[in-house]
Amino acid sequence: MKEFSHLDPKGNPSIVDISDKKVTKRSARARSVVVLGEEVMKLLDGNDIHTRKGPVFQTAIIAGTMAAKRTDDLIPLCHSLGLENCHITIVTRGHDAIIDCHVTTEGKTGVEMEALVGASVAALTIYDMCKAISHDIVISETKLMEKTGGKHDFRRDN
Fold first, then answer.
1. Which residue out of 128, 136, 153, 157 is catalytically annotated?
2. 1 with 84: CB under 8 angstroms?
3. Is this model's pTM higher than 0.90 or not?
4. Rounded Cα gap, residues 30 and 113, in angstroms
């Protein structure tokens, strides 16, 4: 039976001891989907939406990258990691903005949380920048798409 990794033997919260783990190349990709709706999508000009606050997707990419680098400040039991790369893409499909955050590093622990935080904050930034146009915007999902390195690799097709 699997157990929670962030609990000590007495059931108290504890950071995972990674002192005996080997340094390996780690990567993770997470996805967030923002349902923008027709009203917001009418403002799509080329590959971005431009508002008084600036270019929405470009700002979301910067915000997501900044957040991924600060994950350990946001999630209490995450290790501090020096990211070697964080690449965020945003594409539109129908009324959806699909955000992919791909993070890599060499270390003793994975970067799933960094990818998830990056995608999530990019989605929240899109919401923030577009809420003046519509409050019908929905962040419909955020999920890990794949991870490599460590004990187990993982890949989700959709």
1. 128
2. no
3. yes
4. 9
Q: How far apart are CA 150 and CA 132, in angstroms?
A: 43
- The residue with tokens 């270390």 is 107
Secondary structure of residue 22 in the 3-state scheme:
coil
| Burial of 31 from C-beta contacts in 10 A (0-12 / 13-18 / 19+) | buried
Q: Which two tokens stand for residue 8?
A: 């000590």
Q: HSE of 82 in the Cβ direction (CA atoms, 13 Å)?
A: 3
Query: pLDDT (tens digit, 9 = 90+) per residue, 61-100?
Result: 999 999 999 999 999 999 999 999 999 999 999 999 999 9
Q: In 3D, which of 32, 31, 36, 51 has the Cα closest to residue 138?
A: 36
Q: Measured between alpha carbons, how far is 34 from 29 in angstroms, rounded to an integer?
A: 17
For the chain, the residue count is 158
Clarify whether 20 is annotated catalytic: no
Comparing C-alpha atoms, which of 144, 137, 135, 104 is closest to residue 123? 137
Amino acid at 27: S
In percent, how much of the chain has pLDDT > 70? Answer: 99
The edge-to-edge listing of strands for the beta sheet with 48-51 is 44-45, 48-51, 54-55
